[in-house]
Design goal:
heterodimer, A: alpha+beta, Aldehyde Oxidoreductase, domain 4, 5-stranded mixed sheet, 26% helix, B: alpha+beta, Ubiquitin-like (UB roll), DNA polymerase, domain 1, 7 strands
């Protein structure tokens, strides 16, 4: 029986190398088909009439004019009379028509009367929220009163970050069609296997009647874990139209309004410290919103287990739109609040925050050594000790430069995942798994693992994913995919290899356990001259192909959890205009055994850029009076461009001490720290704390004006 | 629905495309090849529609025909009527560059050009960059430098990069940042894009 472990470093032919993604040629040439690209014969186009009110009750809906329009094939009322609507953009009526212009015209012909109800979309003051503010929890640890009386210096400040949206470039949606009693769903989803039952349930059909397919997905970031109401609606429209496929994808404004929001979180924080840097106490009143469902629950203080704590958190229930998981749920918020407040404490002591973090590193618990190692490497890469200065760049002129740091953590244990590995008698190899590749490189990782394990070139292995008819694999969220899919595909490959060896061994006059496969050759370990090709070995299978089921969880320790990361940012701030410019970010990250170094680094680069986006630009700006989002488009919902990110440096912790932990997820961790690191760098540059992200020019200037600081006047 | 009714609508009722469609109408003359000719301030102007009109587009050197409403953009005509889905509709208002095509040698946001206006012009899309099964050097460079994650912005970036390099064969890093500032990526692939454009400019392949 196979020993389920990863190969030693000197035996890895592909694992851990820098390998280009296998679907790259399809993506660069436009041949990669996303669900949004699916065009089916006779396909109709769906559009949705959306609520213009943040909170309202529907009095009446008149679809008669739309139904009579030529080219309109189906109309479905999603929210009929007496239905309460809780955000702008909520679906009311959907239509399917022969083309998009006709569907748009039909939407305009629908008449809806509303009873408008009071709404709240602002979340920056729990006192102003009135009945919409709900105390979620109050906690105490240790003796906070004593902690603060032991403190020699106490700092207080406001910190936080607003609601942002996922802004997936491929909007949420699907092409839905009926084939008899069965539904074929081309869904844009992070959970191919997991969406089947979620589609079947509302349609009241057996899950065995639903098939989900998806070759590629244009971004999810936590917002696409199942069908949305509009996907089910598309299926209903399709049924009304006699089964014709219906393509229903959000327009960009709807995508930003209704298809996902990361909860905001703000806090009033008090920290007690001793003059030597010892942290004695933490107190916080925090609040935030995730729309009508309340908010998140960021774990503050983040990572540093401060001995004495008093905390109270309030959820603001409002009409901003529905919250969804956003890459590392709760962590960027907790990190942005904690690491900034701690940096303020260091500044109050006139202490280098690097030294302050190191001084308190034991409070981080079991990963203290990793954080410590990573901070040292990051400091070298950004030349911290040379470039750091006390708060407020003393340089002449309006451009002030500063450094900031932060650390973060994440779990990343592999999710349950099954696969079927088939080896044909001619030696060809195929893997089937109901997973999905979010652009993280899942396909490529599977290909690397199977090929490395079977001693074959990558081109000899065919990877099939993105179909719910393949063995079920978990949703891609929480950095759980790489651990799950790598463990199950490794197990399947090892088991399959055992069986091939068993069939081939007699012909080589050896025992199966004495065989190995190297470079497409099956040979006797002690006598490599005794060998046969991979195809010859597989021919011993006879006429029937061999199929092995790989599972995770399973025997052996192939995946693990718990990573640490450290990041440092270097910014320049123009204190006349308030514009923050990124010079450099350094990210040092561990994730156990790396399968593909190239795509792993890409995850970190991407996370840093996403971090720059929410640190400097992103905010779902709501109008208090109308309850509408003011920037549901991509010119005013700002994302960083290619010139806005500065230089990015990624250092992966690999090799001894890391590899043997097994495979751990990487999607979430590096996106957690940038907000805090960049905010700290801006504080270091300007001498003042800008309380809330994003660090837009108006916020920077307001902070400079309010708090003075070393550079308030030039 | 008549155009006049549309113009009377408030707020979001009047879309960019209905505006483009409705503007410039004064009187109509008999139908000629899918459009009529009207006089606006003494000048002759082609008037298409309402309703679908035949169009002829020259895409990647091939002539393609379709029937589209005049308000349909070049992007939508390709995606919905010609099943050429390489270019993506993302912002749909000329901000993100995911729909970039090269029209008469110039990179354009195909979501801001009407299909009827693209007639008679030479259109190059991402589907037209490969020669047979051989990738264009820009495409190969995007793969080598992992200038893609989910890949949804990638076709637009590839086409924009090609158009940029056609005009700037030996760019500096600063020129690349400026020249490709009209394309947005959500996954964060800009480091790869910078390296890819540099590689394609040098015409070589990076190691690894």
């Amino acid at each position: 029986m196979a020993e389920y472990k990863w190969p030693e470093a000197d035996k890895r032919t592909l694992i851990g190398k820098r390998i280009s993604r296998i679907d790259g040629p399809f993506k660069v040439s436009g041949r990669a088909k996303y669900s949004f690209d699916i065009n089916r014969p006779g396909m109709l186009f769906g559009k949705i009439l959306r609520s213009p009110h943040a909170h309202a009750k529907i009095k009446s809906v008149d679809t008669s004019a739309a139904e009579k329009m030529p080219g309109v094939k189906a109309v479905h009322v999603v929210a009929g009379p007496d239905t309460e609507l809780y955000w702008v953009g909520a679906s009311i009526v959907a239509v399917a028509a022969v083309d998009e212009p006709t569907a748009e015209d039909a939407i305009r012909a629908i008449k809806v009367d509303y009873e408008v109800l009071p709404h709240l979309v602002i979340d920056n003051d729990p006192k102003a929220a009135g009945e919409f503010a709900r105390t979620a929890n109050e906690n105490k640890a240790g003796d906070p009163d004593k902690g603060f009386s032991d403190a020699e210096v106490t700092i207080e400040g406001n910190y936080g970050l607003p609601v942002i949206t996922h802004c997936c470039l491929e909007p949420h949606g699907s092409v839905m069609e009926w084939e008899g009693d069965n539904v074929l769903a081309h869904l844009s989803t992070q959970a191919v296997s997991g969406s089947v039952a979620q589609i079947a349930r509302p349609l009241e059909i057996p899950a065995t009647s639903v098939r989900v397919q998806q070759d590629h997905i244009g971004g999810g970031f936590g917002s696409k874990f199942g069908p949305d109401e509009w996907d089910i609606t598309a299926a209903r429209l399709s049924k009304k139209a006699g089964g014709k496929p219906v393509k229903m994808f959000n327009e960009r404004d709807a995508e930003l309004m209704v298809a996902g929001a990361r909860p905001s979180d703000y806090a009033r924080v008090k920290i007690g410290v001793k003059k030597d840097g010892t942290i004695t106490a933490w107190e916080s009143q925090s609040w935030g919103t995730g729309g009508i469902g309340g908010g998140g629950s960021p774990p503050i203080p983040y990572i540093f287990n401060i001995p004495n704590q008093r905390k109270q958190h309030t959820n603001i229930v409002n009409h901003i739109g529905s919250q969804r998981a956003w890459r590392a749920p709760n962590h960027p918020q907790a990190c942005a609040i904690t690491m900034t407040a701690l940096e303020d404490a260091a500044a109050a002591l006139n202490m280098d925050p690097y030294d302050f973090f190191m001084k308190n590193i034991e409070l981080t618990g079991q990963r203290a050594q990793i954080y410590s190692d990573e901070l040292k490497i990051a400091a070298d890469l950004i030349d911290w000790k040379k470039n750091w200065h006390a708060r407020g760049d003393k340089a002449a002129g309006p451009i002030k430069r500063g450094l900031g740091l932060s650390i973060h953590t994440w779990g990343g244990l592999g999710h349950p995942s099954d696969c079927d590995l088939t080896i044909q008698p001619d030696g060809s190899v195929e893997l089937k798994m109901g997973t999905q590749d979010l652009g993280t490189g899942t396909r490529t990782a599977l290909n690397i693992i199977v090929a490395d394990t079977l001693g074959l070139p990558m081109t000899a292995v065919k990877i099939n994913i993105g179909d719910s008819r393949y063995p079920a694999s978990g949703g891609s969220g929480g950095s759980t995919t790489i651990g799950g899919i790598s463990a199950s595909s490794r197990r399947a490959s090892l088991d399959a290899l055992d069986q091939v060896f068993a069939k081939a061994a007699p012909a080589l006059d050896a025992k199966p356990e004495d065989l190995e496969v190297v470079n497409g050759t099956v040979r006797v370990k002690s006598n490599p001259a005794k060998s046969m090709t991979w195809a010859q070995a597989c021919s011993k299978l006879g006429a029937t192909p061999l199929t092995v089921r790989g599972k995770n969880p399973g025997p052996g320790s192939l995946t693990n959890q718990g990573v640490g990361g450290a990041q440092m940012a270097d910014v320049s701030v123009d204190i006349e205009t308030g514009i923050v410019k990124m010079n450099k970010i350094v990210a040092v990250q561990d994730c156990g055994l790396i399968i593909d170094l190239k795509t792993a680094e890409s995850q970190c680069y991407g996370a840093l850029i996403m971090g720059v986006c929410y640190a400097l630009y992103e905010e779902k700006i709501m109008d208090a009076k109308t309850g509408r989002m003011l920037n549901p488009n991509m010119e005013f919902y700002k994302l960083a461009g290619i010139a806005d990110i500065g230089e990015l440096v990624v250092h992966m912790m690999t090799g001894k001490g890391y590899d043997e932990r097994g495979v751990i997820g990487l999607g979430e961790p590096p996106v957690i720290s940038p907000g805090a690191a960049i905010s700290n760098a801006v504080a270091n540059a300007t001498g003042v704390r800008v309380p809330y992200l994003p660090l837009t020019p108006d916020r920077v200037l307001a902070a400079l004006e309010k708090k003075g600081g070393n550079n308030a006047r030039i | 629905m008549q155009d006049d009714d549309r113009l009377k609508e408030k707020g979001s009722g009047l879309t960019r495309r209905t505006f483009l469609k409705a503007s410039g109408i004064s009187l109509s003359v008999p139908l000629v090849m899918g459009h009529r000719v009207i006089k606006v301030s003494g000048a002759e102007v082609k008037l298409y529609g309402p309703g679908k009109v035949p169009i002829q587009l020259t895409i990647n050197g091939k002539t393609q025909t379709a029937q589209v409403e005049p308000r349909v953009t070049l992007l939508e005509a390709l995606r919905n009527d010609l099943d050429m889905t390489g270019a993506k509709r993302v912002c749909d208002r000329g901000t993100c560059g995911a729909c970039t095509m090269i029209v008469d040698g110039k990179a354009v946001y195909s979501c801001t050009m009407l299909a009827i206006d693209a007639q008679g012009k030479s259109i190059t899309t991402v589907e037209g960059l490969m020669q047979g099964e051989k990738l264009h050097p820009v495409q190969q460079a995007f793969i080598d430098n992992d200038a893609q994650q989910c890949g949804f912005c990638t076709p637009g970036f590839v086409v924009a990069s090609k158009a940029f390099l056609d005009k700037n064969p030996n760019p500096t890093p600063e020129q690349i940042k400026k020249g490709l500032g009209g394309n947005l990526c959500r996954c964060g692939t800009y480091m790869g894009v910078r390296a890819a454009v540099m590689q394609a400019a040098k015409g070589g392949r990076r190691n690894g």
